[in-house]
């Protein structure tokens, strides 16, 4: 029994690396009754103790070398001050390289203004249309209408100026007495900014925007660079609704619905809108796409919710981009209750944009308000409420109304062939006022880097 215990102890020592080199001794030799001499036992125990002490000495020397930051046996151990200086210099070098990559990137220089006057001059240089009634500008990225106090940021932080701060300067430069914002994209969108020089013109434009909703014509069309193409690739106009749902008793998120009940609509628990999208171009290498989206209303981020529902979140969207995950490079929907972490970008996409995963937050939100259509802007204004209701269904070519007693349903039947016809009302495009804004520089640069060619027809 004594030899068995000795053998077990020897195995434990070998298992815990207390004996680095052991001469080959078989189990039968240790357990054989012929080796009952006590000298054999003492020799084995002395061998184990000696090796155990040598291993402990090696561990102590290795710990001292690691503390002094000298792993090589030939080097002298450094002092604590030298080690701290060496580690600090390494961290400073890494921070210096990181800051240089951020500063030298193209996305870090998308705000060419630093004062209010420079922003006003930049807006006037991007003029699209100007007459006695309207002033249309191309709003740059990162400029909001008013100060909201929100800390959310998409891309590099812009200078803290808004349209409310710049409008008085624009009035002085253009020598206008009245300027009011009628159409303006969000802070993190670029695109068409329409300013009315008269109050009557502003009211007429608001009426045209409401009229386009009744005509099922999307007055605003956006261009978006998405992480992949939308599913389905093209989708015609469809009615949808947004509802607000509370998560974790504090956070409200927007959820898309396609068949809301009449009770929810009457109680205004949902906000209805029409939307459609078309995939204009795709990238063969990264899978990114250029998608055109038309919406009638942009409340509660309806545009981004629509894109994430169709598995095509725009680049730079870390709010609703979490609702899409990627399994073997295939987009998969994620429930809005579990969408918390944004999936990492494709390595090829970051490589084409000269980015690393550590600085992928520099990507701005790639949404641009490309087109604004004011339906019937050059049409004669309706005289009364009945004529206003009829004008939403009759053709704009025939502005004369024969009988004011004709109902809108009869006009729709006469022009579209029957009450069950689902075609949208006919209207004349020649009576519409359409504005098209050129793409900003960061949008063009991203398209060129990703290899997405803009179609000639658009």
Question: Which helices and strands appear, and what pairs or packs with what?
Answer:
Layout lengths: L1 H14 L11 H5 L6 H30 L12 H25 L11 H10 L1 E4 L3 E6 L23 H12 L5 E4 L6 E7 L2 H16 L5 E7 L7 E14 L3 E7 L4 H5 L4 E12 L6 E7 L6 H8 L14 E4 L2 E4 L13 H6 L14 E8 L10 H7 L16 H9 L16 E4 L4 H10 L8
Parallel strand pairs: 4-12
Antiparallel strand pairs: 1-2, 2-4, 3-4, 5-9, 5-12, 6-7, 6-8, 8-9, 10-11, 12-13
Helix pairs in contact: 5-6
Describe the structure in your own words.
About 18% of the residues have low confidence. The chain has a domain of 66 residues. Helix 5 crosses helix 6. It has 13 helices and 13 strands. A hairpin with a 2-residue loop joins strand 10 and strand 11. With 458 residues, the chain is of the alpha+beta class.
SSE order in H/E notation? Answer: HHHHHEEHEEHEEEHEEHEEHEHHEH
Overall 3D shape: globular
Assembly type of the chains comes to: single chain
DSSP summary, beta strand count:
13
Structural class: alpha+beta
The biggest sheet, with number of strands, parallel, antiparallel or mixed sense and barrel status, is: 11 strands, mixed
Radius of gyration: 36 Å
Poorly predicted regions = 14-41, 65-77, 386-427
Mean pLDDT: 74
Strand content: 15-25%
Number of helices: 13
Family: Belongs to the pseudouridine synthase RluA family.
Keywords: Isomerase
InterPro entries: PsdUridine_synth_cat_dom_sf, RluA_PseudoU_synthase
Biased composition (Polar residues): 58-71
